[in-house]
């Protein structure tokens, strides 16, 4: 995954995104993903949604695409920041979404969702590091002769896992 969204959350009724720092007696300590990086305790009364658990509906009613994958697609097509804002027209929002996920479900993905998606992407791309290592692995797998490469790469992956577990 190019970006790790496990610790990034959205809190209902509050703008922006938040990094989960640690649990506390009354809730969880979060830090705002902005220049100020204010910390506070988000209590149980706040509705907190982890970005790693959010997906975009697709035309096939049983399929969704994880938000991390959508962010990867946005990065490939639009770079570090997107020009879509809350004030963009519905046509601009629709064309943006179609350029990223052409088969998104137009009945269940609302314009407000697309606005949130673009805003969240701008915040995440600024404050959460994208990893490029997996992109090169994907590019190698898609190269001609890829049928033999995964077999050769498999021992390296096992070796890396063994090193991590011994540390």
Task: Briefly characterize the structure.
The protein has 167 residues and is α+β, with helices and mostly antiparallel strands. The protein is built from five helices and seven strands, in the order βββββββααααα. The protein has a five-stranded antiparallel sheet with strand order 4-3-2-1-5, with no helix packed on it. Strands 6-7 form a two-stranded antiparallel sheet.
Give the amount of beta strand, in percent. Answer: 15-25%
Instruction: Please indicate the count of domains.
Output: 2
Calculate Rg over CA atoms: 19 Å
The number of strands is: 7
CA distance, first residue to last residue: 23 Å
How many helices? The count is 5
Q: What would you note in describing this structure?
A:
This protein has a five-stranded antiparallel β-sheet with strand order 4-3-2-1-5, with no helix packed on it. The protein has a two-stranded antiparallel ribbon with strand order 6-7. It is globular. It has 167 residues and is an alpha+beta fold. Mean pLDDT is 79; it is low at 133-167. It has five helices and seven strands; from the N terminus they run βββββββααααα. The longest helix is centred in the C-terminal third of the chain and has 18 residues, at 149-166. The chain folds into two domains: 8-51, SH3 type barrels, CATH 2.30.30; 55-127, no CATH class. The two termini are 23 Å apart. It has helices at 67-78, 90-100, 111-127, 133-142, 149-166, and strands at residues 8-11, 18-23, 27-32, 39-43, 48-50, 55-57, 64-66.
